[in-house]
Automatic annotation (TrEMBL):
Gene3D superfamilies: Vaccinia Virus protein VP39. One of its GO terms (molecular function) is O-methyltransferase activity. This is catechol O-methyltransferase. Keywords: Catecholamine metabolism, Methyltransferase, S-adenosyl-L-methionine, Transferase. Pfam families: Methyltransf_3 (PF01596). Belongs to the class I-like SAM-binding methyltransferase superfamily. Cation-dependent O-methyltransferase family. GO terms for biological process: catecholamine metabolic process; methylation. The keyword Nucleotide-binding does not apply. SUPFAM superfamilies: S-adenosyl-L-methionine-dependent methyltransferases (SSF53335). Its EC number is 2.1.1.6. It is an enzyme of class 2 (transferase).
Length: 273
């Protein structure tokens, strides 16, 4: 969603199922079937009534350009919600020769809505929704051999988990030269711990890793912390990441948008001296 934002918006309970009724009751459903653009248009139309935390077309364009430029075979997103970004990016990935889009979503109800819309958009064979917390799902994608490298990762879920999930990927050896990470909402509501991490030098990260005291929720508002995850929000794995990874990281802020996507590229992995 783009435009002026005065505070963090909140969702209306039950609006996700209402979205399904809104779309599936359309008289022109047969023309919508198999058409990702039309499904996205309808989600956007519904958003005039109910606020949805979707990435939107403007910021979405930044990620589509990354797909066009890097041509990943497989792409992963953390935080699928009702499937807007999975349809937008899954469609782009398929058109650019990709093989699979994994959408990791904590809430089974949101994932069920997403699956109905992904299927309607004709992407049911291409986009795989994985229900559960992202750290456990990422770990499973790795141990099952499905993913051996992060090619393009879109992060858009629980804000404190941006950094710890990236560090988990680093520890699993999934972040390699050429890996690209696009993180949403880095200006609104903001994610200072994540930005500090991806913008740090190797020597700064090595020092921080030595002093690491575990998972922290510092740097986030109460509202951000209460979103999505309950008491059980600590990462399932203790991680410090791999401080030897060299990143180039820059925010991309569309004109007139109060938010930005941080695009982070792994350019090298330094040897320990
Ligand atoms: C901002 S919404 C995602 C919007 C979506 N990427 C889009 O642009 O259409 C964030 C989603 O992340 C999910 N989420 C929050 N914490 C999560 C976690 N630890 N693992 C997986 N999903 C999570 C929430 O349930 C919510 O659906």
């Amino acid at each position: 969603m783009t435009g002026e934002r005065r505070s963090e918006y909140t969702r209306t309970e039950g609006s996700e199922v209402k979205l399904l009724h809104f779309i599936y009751s359309r008289p022109d459903l047969d023309e919508i079937r198999g058409n990702p653009g039309k499904v996205l248009d309808l989600i956007e139309e519904f958003e005039k009534q109910y606020w949805f935390p979707n990435v939107g077309r403007t910021k979405g364009e930044i990620v589509i350009k990354l797909i066009e430029e890097h041509r990943p075979r497989k792409m992963i997103e953390l935080g699928g919600y009702v499937g807007y970004s999975a349809i937008l990016f899954g469609d782009a990935l398929r058109r650019h020769g990709g093989e699979r889009y994994y959408s990791l979503e904590l809430n089974p109800e949101f994932a069920a809505v997403a699956n109905r819309l992904i299927e309607l958009a004709g992407l049911g064979d291409f986009v795989q929704t994985i229900v559960g917390r992202s750290d456990k799902s990422l770990h499973k994608l790795y141990t099952s051999g499905e993913i051996s490298k992060v090619e393009l990762l879109f992060i858009d879920h629980y804000k404190p988990a941006y950094k710890t999930d990236l560090q988990l990927c680093e520890e699993l050896g999934l972040i390699q030269p050429g890996s690209v990470i696009a993180a949403d909402n880095v200006l609104f509501p903001g994610n200072p711990p994540y930005l500090q991490y991806v913008r740090s030098t190797v020597s700064e990260k090595r020092q921080a890793a030595q002093k690491a005291t575990g998972f922290s929720k510092d740097g986030f508002s109460e509202k951000t912390l209460s979103k999505y995850m309950g008491q059980d929000s600590a990462p399932a794995f203790e991680v410090v990441g791999n401080p030897n990874i060299v990143y180039q990281s820059t925010p991309i802020q569309p004109e007139g948008d109060p938010d930005a996507i941080e695009v982070t590229k792994c350019v090298a992995v330094e040897e320990e001296s």
